[in-house]
Amino acid sequence: MRRLLDGIYRSTGALAALFMIGVLVMVITGIVTREMGIYLRGTDDYAGYCMAAAGFLALAYTFKHGEHIRVTLIIERLSGKPRRFLEGLTLSFGCAIAVALAWYSVRLVLNSYQFNDISQGVDASPLWIPQIGMAIGTIILVIAFVDDLLMTLLGRPLARLNTPGNEAARME
Questions:
Q1: Which of 48, 75, 129, 161 is 20 to 30 A from residue 82's alpha carbon, by CA?
Q2: Strand partners for 126
Q3: 137, 57 in Cβ contact below 8 A?
Q4: Rounded to whole angstroms, how far apart are CA atoms 115 and 131?
């Protein structure tokens, strides 16, 4: 199960990287074609879609690397059961927030699809397509939070992704 979850987190991280490359491609394409006197519709919009997808798809990957900002002023001073309780409490709040975000993200995609919502840009793209990245990213973030919460409740160290060249990744 650990390998499957880590594979999912790495996959969304890789997708986020691909979408960042998509941002670069769209921006460069827009600049180059503009200088050539060619108007290529939607490059700005697609760059924005790629940026949003990259941001949301990277959430779980970043979380499992321990790179999200955490205020550990109190937690770092505790140990044993009090620390595990406080970690469990904060992870529970994180789970609740992530579930709400995922719920509304999926609902937004379904509503956009149902109402044939299109972008206001010159490309008039169906909005549910770029919103899928947000929904998938938030769902995987929920899985990552639940993963850490269960590990904390079971008293096991939190699993952090270890990537080549990242010797700092460890079990907390």
A1: 161
A2: 118
A3: yes
A4: 14
